Amino acid sequence: MDEAVKQARVAQLEDYIMKKCLWQFHSRAWDREKQNEGILTKTMQILCGEPVEKDSPADRCHWVDAVVLAEAYQERFDWIVSATKEDIKEVMAALRERIDFLTITGSLNEELKVKAY
Questions:
Q1: Over the chain, what is the mean pLDDT?
Q2: End-to-end CA distance of the chain, in Å?
């Protein structure tokens, strides 16, 4: 996939998350990391038609958010419906990196690093 196309697609998906998803606001960095991994991995699995693990309460919580996110993406972005599994996985991996940066490593919120939480 062309890098410019990938970045444009990541920007669309990122914009939706940043404007519509409250799950991005956990108060600790490690919570944000777990949720980003859980929700975005499960979203990718749903979009690719792969099985999704729902064994633990955390898995089920992430799965519910992933279902809502996958449905929103499919409704809003025509390219997702026609994309190959490989393209979806590539875009979702880049999206995860971007969301991790925005919500964790690049965040100016110092409370994310407070050990007392």
A1: 93
A2: 41
CA distances to 25, 49, 56, 84 from 102, rounded to whole Å, are 11, 28, 27, 27
Burial of 3-25, coded b for 16+ CB within 10 Å and e otherwise, reads eeebeebbebbbeebeeebebbe
Q: Which helix (H) or strand (E) holds 109?
A: none
Among the listed ranges 1-5, 25-29, 34-38, 56-60, which one has the minimum average pLDDT value?
A: 25-29
State whether residue 12 is helix, strand or coil.
Answer: helix
CA gap 5, 90 in Å, rounded: 11
Residue 50 Cα distances to 16, 25, 38, 45, 67, angstroms:
23, 27, 14, 5, 13
Record the pTM.
0.92
CA distance 63 to 79: 23
Q: 23 pLDDT exceeds 80?
A: no
Q: Copy the structure tokens of residue 61.
A: 């919580």
Return the DSSP state at 41.
H
